[in-house]
């Protein structure tokens, strides 16, 4: 009997130290979806340095306080430990999943017993990618718990978020959670669809009208959509699942950008610069504070940034409401629609602030207030914009009517001089048109003169150089060849000396004409100066075509030219060089063709020759050969 009493005493003492008796939750078949915050205990880590191993001490266990249903402690710079003890009825399933309903928690650590007296850490929150911080693809954080027995099992969570520390907890069977997720996705998807459709619709109007109010509306709606997706958890799930939530899209930056663009939209829609100047200045101040909040977030000052946004209720809210009321009383109907939309969002934001500061605890009824309010606001703001455009159209129509009346009055006075003015304009227009045509013709003449020989009308050396460089580049890309023919008239000087320059000019013109006739249309012919001509042959068969054309030119160009009663006759010498066999650029190709031409003249003229037919090397090959001949000791 004494032993039994001692056992009961020790058991009672142990339960009073650990707190299991007061915090244990017995799960049954009907427990799926049950909130757990009424059964948890909280401990504020004022130093921020407590570890999971230290929590087992009786001193720290005694500091845990019942949460009494609280799911948020508001904006706190300290981490909070949550203690949860679970067990199951023998008829209940052993496998359960724990949901932490704070989708914007900065840092969450879940400690699960590993069965060997230690702990298994699960890291979650915005600092961890979505795909790594939960066991199921749900918009909120969900973790599989170890199998539960009929004996109590204690779990610990460490939550830290200076911008608003909340931790609504629920216990689930995965099948029930999957059904809930399906219903939620349908409802939230409808909200996203409405906001996105309005965004696209007004984006198209912005592109058409290029109106500043539509510009700020599009930005406001875009960031409102991102904001509500972030608040519901779908942002991390679908937009950046493989990365931690970026600082420029977290729960501080997104609402700041949304508020910044909403303030600019308010200023533009309600024309506060003109009609409500005090509100305009307050909204400017709000924009500055939003930018400061963003900067604080980027410098990891999340707590200060959250308070900066909360304090904006002293500036932006009175300014927006006041300017809307004043403009409404001035007869500006879009201000009334704006007031309705802003009032809805203002109410939802007030609820968010109450949740953030811990005054209002997270619950199902207030989880969807903000997305619904943003959707309604987007609709009402879109109507306000459309009505504003209608007002602008009416004002424009009135202005056009007034302008038409003034124009009619002026026309009566200007009619007498209109005909004279029209005649002067017509004459001047014709004069300018003629001058422009002369300038264009002169430009064409200069362009033609820059690239053509005035005597033969053939392209000149400058044209040949540019055409050859282009042909070489094309040949290099397409692995083709190019042939350059240098054509020199033999015994041309005696014709000039005996019959005069008129005979020489005629000879050159006839030679040029024959060259054009016997060279393919796609190839180029040019006069290089004096009695020297050139032909550029392109294509995969450039060598064979060059040889064929050279033979044909030898026969055709040697035909006599009639000059009065005289029959003038010359022979021609042709030197041919090939790309890429003999050279890789125009300068070297020209030198190779010139060497071949010089060789023809040495051999008696009146013939054609391809460079290298007698085994001579190109200048580049000669240089390479000379390098090889240099003794190795001199290199």
UniProtKB/TrEMBL annotation:
SUPFAM superfamilies, A to Z: Nucleotide cyclase
Where do the TM regions start and end? 186-207, 214-232, 282-299, 305-325, 337-356, 368-387
InterPro entries in alphabetical order: 7TMR_DISM_rcpt_extracell_dom1 (IPR011623), 7TMR_DISM_rcpt_extracell_dom2 (IPR011622), DGC-Regulatory_Protein (IPR052163), GGDEF_dom (IPR000160), Nucleotide_cyclase (IPR029787), Rev_trsase/Diguanyl_cyclase (IPR043128)
Q: Which residues form the GGDEF domain?
A: 480-613
What CDD domains does the record point to? Answer: GGDEF
User: What keywords does the record list, in alphabetical order?
Assistant: Membrane, Signal, Transmembrane, Transmembrane helix
Q: Per its UniProt record, what SMART domains does this chain match? A: GGDEF
Pfam families with a match to the protein in the record: 7TMR-DISM_7TM (PF07695), 7TMR-DISMED2 (PF07696), GGDEF (PF00990)
Signal sequence interval, chain numbering: 1-23
Family annotation (NCBIfam families): GGDEF
**What is the recorded name of this protein?**
DeoR faimly transcriptional regulator
* High-level lineage: Bacteria, Pseudomonadati, Pseudomonadota, Gammaproteobacteria, Pseudomonadales
């Amino acid at each position: 009997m004494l032993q039994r009493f001692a056992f009961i005493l020790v058991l009672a003492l142990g339960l009073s130290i650990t707190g299991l008796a007061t915090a244990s939750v017995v799960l049954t078949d009907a427990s799926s979806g049950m909130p757990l915050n009424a059964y948890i205990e909280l401990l504020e880590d004022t130093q921020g340095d407590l570890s999971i191993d230290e929590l087992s001490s009786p001193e720290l266990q005694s500091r845990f306080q019942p949460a009494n249903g609280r799911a948020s402690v508001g904006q706190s710079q300290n981490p909070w430990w949550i203690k949860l003890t679970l067990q199951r009825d023998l008829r209940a399933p052993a496998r359960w999943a724990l949901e932490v309903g704070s989708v914007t928690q900065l840092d969450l650590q879940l400690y699960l017993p590993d069965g060997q007296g230690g702990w298994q850490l699960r890291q979650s929150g915005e600092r961890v990618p979505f795909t790594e911080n939960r066991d199921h693809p749900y918009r909120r954080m969900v973790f599989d718990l170890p199998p539960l027995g009929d004996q109590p099992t204690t779990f610990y969570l460490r939550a830290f978020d200076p911008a608003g520390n909340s931790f609504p907890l629920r216990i689930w069977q995965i099948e029930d959670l999957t059904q809930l997720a399906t219903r939620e996705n349908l409802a939230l998807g409808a909200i996203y669809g409405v906001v996105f459709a309005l965004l696209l619709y007004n984006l198209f109007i912005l592109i058409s009208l290029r109106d500043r109010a539509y510009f700020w509306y599009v930005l406001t709606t875009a960031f409102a959509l991102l904001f509500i997706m972030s608040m519901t958890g779908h942002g991390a799930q679908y937009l950046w699942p493989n990365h931690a939530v970026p600082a420029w899209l977290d729960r501080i930056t997104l609402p700041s950008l949304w508020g910044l663009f909403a303030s600019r939209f308010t200023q533009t829609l309600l024309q506060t610069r003109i009609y409500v100047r005090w509100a305009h200045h307050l909204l400017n101040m709000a924009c500055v504070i939003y930018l400061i909040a963003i900067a604080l977030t980027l410098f990891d000052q999340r707590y200060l940034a959250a308070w900066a946004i909360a304090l904006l209720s002293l500036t932006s809210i009175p300014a927006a409401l006041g300017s809307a009321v004043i403009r409404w009383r001035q007869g500006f109907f879009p201000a009334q629609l704006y007031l309705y939309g802003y009032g809805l969002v203002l109410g939802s934001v007030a609820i968010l602030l109450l949740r953030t500061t811990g005054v209002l605890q997270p619950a199902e009824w207030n989880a969807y207030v903000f997305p619904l309010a943003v959707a309604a606001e987007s609709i009402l703001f879109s109507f306000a914009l459309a009505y504003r455009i209608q007002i602008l159209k009416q004002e424009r129509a009135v202005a056009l009517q007034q302008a038409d009346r003034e124009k009619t009055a002026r026309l009566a006075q200007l009619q007498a001089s209109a005909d004279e003015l029209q005649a002067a304009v017509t004459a001047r227009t014709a004069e300018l048109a003629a001058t422009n045509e002369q300038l264009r013709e002169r430009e064409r003449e200069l362009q033609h003169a820059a690239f053509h020989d005035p005597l033969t009308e053939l392209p000149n050396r400058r044209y040949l150089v540019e055409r050859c460089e282009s042909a070489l580049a094309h040949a290099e890309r397409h692995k083709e060849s190019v042939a350059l023919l240098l054509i020199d008239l033999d015994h041309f000087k005696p014709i000039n000396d005996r019959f005069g320059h008129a005979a020489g000019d005629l000879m050159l013109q006839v030679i040029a004409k024959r060259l054009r006739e016997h060279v393919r249309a796609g190839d180029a012919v040019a006069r290089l100066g004096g009695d020297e001509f050139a032909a550029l042959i392109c294509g995969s068969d450039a060598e064979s075509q060059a040889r064929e054309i050279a033979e044909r030119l030898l026969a055709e160009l040697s035909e006599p030219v009639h000059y009065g009663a005289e029959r003038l006759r010359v022979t021609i010498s042709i030197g041919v060089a090939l790309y890429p066999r003999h050279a890789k650029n125009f300068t070297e190709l020209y030198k190779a063709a010139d060497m071949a031409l010089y060789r023809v003249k040495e051999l008696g003229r009146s013939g054609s020759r391809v460079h290298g037919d007698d085994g001579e090397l190109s200048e580049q090959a000669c240089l390479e050969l000379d390098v090889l001949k240099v003794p190795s000791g001199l290199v």
